[in-house]
Amino acid sequence: MGDWVAWKLVRIARWFMDRATGIGREQQVDMKNPTTSVVAEKPLTEAQWLVRLIFLESIAGVPGMVAGMLRHLHSLRRLKRDNGWIESLLEESYNERMHLLTFMTLSEPGWFMKTMILGAQGVFFNALFISYLISPRITHRFVGYLEEEAVHTYTRLINEIEAGALPNWSDPKFEVPEIAVSYWRLPEGKRTMRDLFLYVRADEAVHRGVNHTLSNLKQKEDPNPFVSEYKAGQEGRKPNAALKPEGYEREEVIGC
Questions:
Q1: Fewer CB in a 10 Å sphere around the end CB: N or C, the chain?
Q2: Looking at residues 193-203, what average pLDDT do you find?
Q3: How many whole angstroms separate alpha carbon 229 and alpha carbon 249?
Q4: Residue 29 lies inside a defined structural domain of this protein
Q5: In a domain, 93, yes or no
Q6: Collapsed DSSP state (helix, strand, coil) of residue 184
Q7: Is 243 inside a domain boundary?
């Protein structure tokens, strides 16, 4: 039931996201098969995409910070170690902020957009704060579903670039911002907008797998399997979050 509620909340958030960023009915894709829909009836423009991405990433950086902060305080109160969760959660938040800073070099939001972000962040932060106090497991599940939506969004964007629906970003001479080259260490010849969004989508896929896995664990006692040191000869069992969209079950990663 908790997983169902988390999924429905993400669907509601997606609906509000579409309305807030001005996505019309003809610009939506088949949400039953979001990653297989190549191009919408009316593709978004580069400007519309930047509005959507900036709004998305300004919100996406909140969950990791809220969860990391609460686990940090919990560790202080209990006078016990956190078993590696805090590091991954804060790294996730930092990574999402780098996505935002990268996209902001391509577009400077106006006062209306900044006001929307301020309001959305206030609501989202407090909602996550309360939900994490009540049920960290369901909150991580919610974030996992949220990251799945991000994967769908970037897949659609990449499809539209490959189809030539975004002429500026489809141009191989249009190079990515320098901040992206430095952060992802993009090699020469791999610095197009398509390459950038492939890296960003890979980040979102990792966050998806991490949060679904954390949701499957015992919140107060299990170690974070993605930063754990494994026994000699079992290095190959170290989980790869990007390759497990639904996350790892507890018995797959605990006790190795």
A1: N
A2: 95
A3: 18
A4: no
A5: yes
A6: helix
A7: yes
Give the DSSP letter of residue 33: S
**Rounded to 5°, angle at Cα 213 from 1 and 216:** 45
For 64-106, write each residue's pLDDT tens digit.
Answer: 999 999 999 999 999 998 989 999 999 999 999 999 999 999 9
| pTM listed for this prediction | 0.87
d(CA 44, CA 98): 23
CATH number at residue 128: 1.20.1260.140
List, as one string, the DSSP characters of 70-117: HHHHHHHHHTS--TTHHHHHHHHHHHHHHHHHHHHTT----HHHHHHH
Q: How many residues does the chain have?
A: 256
**Cα angle value 172/163/177 (rounded, 5°):** 35
The residue ranking higher by pLDDT, 39 or 254, is 254
Sign of CA dihedral 192, 195, 197, 200: negative
Q: Which domain holds residue 144?
A: 2-21+38-253
Span 244-251, mean pLDDT? 88
Which of 183, 180, 164 lies closest to 172, judged by CA? 164
Contact, 96 vs 183, CB < 8 A?
no
Q: pLDDT class for 8, splitting at 50, 70, 90?
A: confident
How many other C-beta atoms can be found within 10 angstroms of the C-beta atom of residue 120?
18
Total number of domains constituting the chain: 1
Nearest to 141 by CA among 36, 225, 219, 68: 219
Radius of gyration of the chain (CA): 19
Domain membership flag for residue 79: yes
Residue 242: predicted pLDDT: 83
DSSP sequence for 124-182: HHHHHHHHHHH-HHHHHHHHHHHHHHHHHHHHHHHHHHHTTSSHHHH-TT-BPPHHHHH
